[in-house]
């Protein structure tokens, strides 16, 4: 009996190990192809892993289109509406409320990154056009 139990445990461990390895390979392949396709940067991939949610998923949850992505007021309005709608005291779902919160968190993070990158690009552009660097007479 003990021999069969040990064999079952070993077999189960092998199956779980293979499944974990396969999932890890798929995740690495997904990250690699996403970066190569130009749809995501290394910082976006890192943010996806940290937040546990992709930017696209966050936009879908909060019903934000690509055109509305920079509209912080619309993001906040949609967030508040959905968050209050799913309030547990009103019969809502704590799970959905937490997904809404994480989606808002992920969008806020992306907005901050975009603002930082825009600021850096703006500073580079200003440095190139700085008249004090011009040596014309």
From TrEMBL:
How is this protein positioned relative to the membrane? Answer: Peripheral membrane protein
Give me the stretches of Polar residues compositional bias.
115-124
Q: What's one GO BP annotation on this UniProt entry? A: protein import into mitochondrial matrix
**Official protein name in the record:** Mitochondrial import inner membrane translocase subunit TIM16
Task: Kindly state one GO CC term assigned in the UniProt record.
Answer: TIM23 mitochondrial import inner membrane translocase complex
Highest taxon of the lineage: Eukaryota
The record's listing under Pfam families reads: Pam16
Naturally occurring in which organism (per UniProt): Rotaria magnacalcarata
Subcellular location as annotated: Mitochondrion inner membrane
Region of interest called Disordered, as start-end residue ranges on this chain: 111-137
The UniProt similarity line reads:
Belongs to the TIM16/PAM16 family.
Q: Which InterPro entries match?
A: J_dom_sf, Tim16
Q: Which UniProt keywords apply?
A: Membrane, Mitochondrion, Mitochondrion inner membrane, Protein transport, Translocation, Transport
Q: Where is the composition biased (Basic and acidic residues)?
A: 126-137
């Amino acid at each position: 009996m003990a021999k069969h139990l040990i064999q079952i445990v070993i077999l189960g461990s092998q199956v779980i190990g293979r499944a974990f390895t396969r999932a890890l390979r798929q995740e690495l392949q997904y990250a690699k192809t996403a970066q190569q396709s130009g749809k995501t940067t290394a910082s976006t991939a890192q943010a996806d892993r940290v937040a546990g949610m992709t930017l696209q998923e966050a936009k879908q949850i909060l019903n934000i289109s690509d055109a509305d992505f920079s509209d912080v007021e619309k993001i906040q309005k949609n967030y508040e509406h959905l968050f209050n709608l799913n309030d547990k005291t009103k019969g809502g779902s704590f799970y959905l409320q937490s997904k809404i919160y994480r989606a808002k968190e992920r969008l806020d993070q992306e907005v901050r990154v975009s603002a930082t990158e825009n600021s850096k690009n703006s500073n580079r552009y200003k440095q190139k056009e700085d008249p004090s660097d011009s040596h014309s007479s």
